[in-house]
Design brief:
Blueprint (H helix, E strand, L loop, with lengths): L10 E2 L5 E4 L2 H8 L6 H16 L2 E4 L2 H7 L7 H15 L3 E2 L2 H13 L9 E2 L14 H15 L5 H9 L2 E2 L2 E2 L1 H6 L6 H10 L4 H12 L4 H12 L2 H10 L4 H28 L6 H28 L7 H7 L1 H19 L6 H10 L7 E3 L4 H9 L5 E3 L5 H10 L4 E2 L1
Helix pairs in contact: 1-4, 4-12, 5-14, 5-15, 10-11, 13-14, 13-16, 14-16, 15-16, 16-17, 16-18
């Protein structure tokens, strides 16, 4: 991580490859035949060649997965095309979920010595931790409840007898286990498939765990393997678009919490418009920045990671690169709104989520509006921000020619 403000430190990562983060819009442009001009086709060919040569790793985050998810069935085909391209370019090179990023940076800030926080997962773990999500206790409890509804006509003694013949020490007995494979239970199995984004094979393993024929680890591993495949995720969204909202809400949970904190803080900047000349407004914006960054950082960490910390701006800049870039860029967006006629857009916060990953890659794609804001902040961490997709191949070639930007 950086020291002095003007330093551009080398990346300390688990790979010597150049790390490149594409904007969500890039996957849309590069995968849409209707937008495939000769120039775009050339860009795609160069990116594929970079990957083939083995000197570049394209990486993605959960923010990209969430933005790819179709909001309705009619958009599903485009989502699958984008996910196919993402998988082709990135393989399983993913950056950790936003909640893990917050926790990792908070741990660095709170430590007496810098910790080696590495946000890159080469196993495709872009998603939040699964704590409690597929607990066997929860699943068995659901099955118990269904059984209870079927036994509603029995008296208390008969219900206890029926349950004792079904469960032993929290697991299903043989006869009950065998009944799960009966055709009459197909509806329950289908409901399980609809409730979770997993391949049928993974769902079967999870169902077998409820029945007692698969271990907890086997069930968890099977489920996570489904999540690690963006192509499958988009296919699942296609077939279960009606259940998309709860799933996306789960995936976006930490970012929603962070957005709430940041939007509350933005009211101070909006208030600047109510009085004072432009010079006074600019002075206040500059004066409030450190204090607001510190307070919003603490609020986000407490709300998302449950950690009560109040570091100064220097510690945040030094040991919390992702949140530092995100909050400063977001502050700049609202400061821009206070001093100009541009109103903040709903997409601005999504852009900030992506920007939180910029210090951890070598080349970061952002749109023309966000690029200069992010570049100004992320320069100290050694990242190059590219504002146009068509400029990306040349930026990669320039970085590859330089041996000073990558180290182990």
């Amino acid at each position: 991580m950086a020291g002095a403000k003007n330093e551009q430190p080398k990346k300390v990562l688990v790979t010597r490859k150049l790390l490149v983060y594409l904007d969500s819009s890039d996957y849309s442009v590069l995968s849409d035949p209707k937008r495939m001009s000769a120039e775009v086709e050339s860009v795609l060919a160069r990116l594929e060649q970079f990957k083939k040569e083995g000197r570049v790793s394209f990486v993605y985050s959960g923010a990209a997965i969430c933005e790819m998810a179709p909001q309705e069935a009619t958009h599903a085909t485009y989502a699958e095309d984008r996910a196919n391209l993402l998988s082709k370019l990135c393989d399983r090179n993913a950056l950790v979920s936003f909640d893990r990023l917050i926790a990792g940076e908070a741990a660095q800030v709170g430590a007496s010595e810098p910790l080696p926080f590495i946000p890159l997962s080469e196993d495709g773990d872009w998603f939040p931790e699964m704590k409690g999500l597929i607990s066997p206790v929860d699943l068995v409890q659901v099955f118990r409840q269904k059984m209870t509804s079927l036994k509603a006509g029995l008296n208390r003694k008969q219900r206890r007898a029926a349950e004792s013949s079904t469960f032993r020490r929290g697991s299903l007995r043989g006869s009950a286990r065998d009944s799960l494979s009966d055709s009459k239970n197909q509806r329950g199995f289908d409901e399980l498939l609809a409730a979770y984004p997993m391949r049928p094979g993974a769902a079967r393993i999870l169902w077998n765990h409820v029945a007692g024929t698969a271990t907890k680890k086997q069930a968890e591993d099977a489920f996570l393997e489904s999540l690690r495949d963006p192509k499958w995720m988009m296919s699942w969204f296609h077939n279960h678009h009606d259940t998309l909202s709860p799933v996306v809400t789960w995936l976006r949970g930490p970012s929603v919490k962070a957005a709430g904190v940041v939007r509350e803080a933005a009211t101070k900047l909006r208030a600047i418009r109510k009085g004072g000349d432009s010079e006074e407004q600019a002075r206040l914006i500059k004066e409030w920045r450190p204090e607001l960054i510190e307070s919003v950082w603490s609020a986000i960490v407490e709300r998302s990671a449950g950690s009560d910390q109040t570091p100064g701006i220097a510690a945040i800049e030094e040991r919390s690169a992702g949140l530092n870039v995100m909050l400063n860029a977001y502050y700049t967006v609202f400061a821009d709104a206070a001093l100009t006629e541009r109103e903040p857009k709903d997409s601005d916060f999504a852009d900030m989520m992506h920007a939180a990953y910029s210090p951890y890659v070598d080349i970061f794609r952002a749109d023309r509006y966000m690029a200069p804001h992010v570049q100004r902040i992320v320069t100290r961490y050694g990242t190059k921000v590219v504002s146009r997709l068509t400029e990306l191949p040349r930026s990669i070639e320039t970085a590859l020619r330089s041996s000073s930007g990558i180290s182990q």
